[in-house]
Amino acid sequence: METKMEKQKVLVVLGSPRKKGNSASLAEKIIQGAEAAGAITETVFIQGLKIAPCQSCYACQVKDSKGCAIEDDMQSIYPKLLESQSWVLACPVYWFTMSAQMKIFMDRMFALGAYGQNPFHRKRIAIAMSYGDMDPFRSGCVNALRTFQDAFNYTGSKIVGMVYGSANKPGEIESDGALMARAEELGRKLVS
Q1: In sequence order, what are the beta bridge partners of 44?
Q2: In 3D, which of 58, 146, 34 has the Cα closest to residue 98?
Q3: Of the residues 14, 79, 181, 185, which has the fewest C-beta atoms closer than 10 A?
Q4: Model confidence band, residue 121 (pLDDT cutoffs 50, 70, 90)
Q5: Which of 126, 127, 128, 148 has the alpha carbon at shortest distance from 192?
Q6: DSSP structural state of residue 64
Q7: Mean pLDDT of the 25-43 span
């Protein structure tokens, strides 16, 4: 008797104040690639959510913890993070690193360990970033990419790939055809 393989779930987290900004355009291409490879995707736009900064209370780290003690919109995202096999994290560079929205989200992921045994293990991750300067070093993009690399190396997650490019006006990044093609290919690779 044949059993159907369950489709991979990909959670896309947009960490920009612009719902249709350049990092969102890159994420959209990753989504197209992932869906073409058979994945189911869901997008969370964190700008419109109430997500408080981590309070360093460590309630999520004690034995038999019930999870993060902060009751806000992050509570609805934890189950989505757990049930997804892959994550796409997309944001612009603000002041030489990731956006504040993405940083708060990343800080609150600290509590994810309370929701299961090593919930980061085997997660496959794609990173998408946009920045204003032409140079990823001078813009600070490299600082953000390194933060993602360090965090997910620590958790045992696998960063499958990163796409990033320079653009200022919303949608401007879409004119970089080669970058957009790499983003779509990253989506396919993410779920393969």
Answers
A1: 13
A2: 146
A3: 79
A4: confident
A5: 126
A6: T
A7: 98
| Overall pTM surpassing 0.90 (yes/no) | yes
Identity of the residue numbered 135: D
For residue 126, what is the enclosing H or E element? strand 124-131
Cβ neighbours of residue 15 closer than 8 Å, sequence gap 6 or more? 23, 46, 47, 89, 90, 91, 98, 99, 101, 102, 105
Note whether residue 92 is domain-resident: yes
Burial class, 52, CB count within 10 angstroms (exposed 0-12 / middle 13-18 / buried 19+): middle
**Containing H/E element for 158?**
strand 158-166
Region of 64 please: left (phi>0), alpha (psi -120 to 50) or beta. Answer: left
CB 13 within 8 A of CB 148: no
Distance CA 26, CA 182 (A): 9
Please, what sign has the CA dihedral across residues 80, 191, 42, 94? positive
Determine, yes or no, domain membership for 82: yes
Percentage of residues in the chain with pLDDT exceeding 70?
A: 97
Q: Which residues pair with 85 in a beta bridge?
A: none
Q: 150: helix, coil or strand?
A: helix
Task: Kindly state the average pLDDT of the residues 163-180.
Answer: 96
CATH of the domain at 33: 3.40.50.360
Structure tokens at 27: 């994420």
The tokens describing 184, both together, are 């779509």
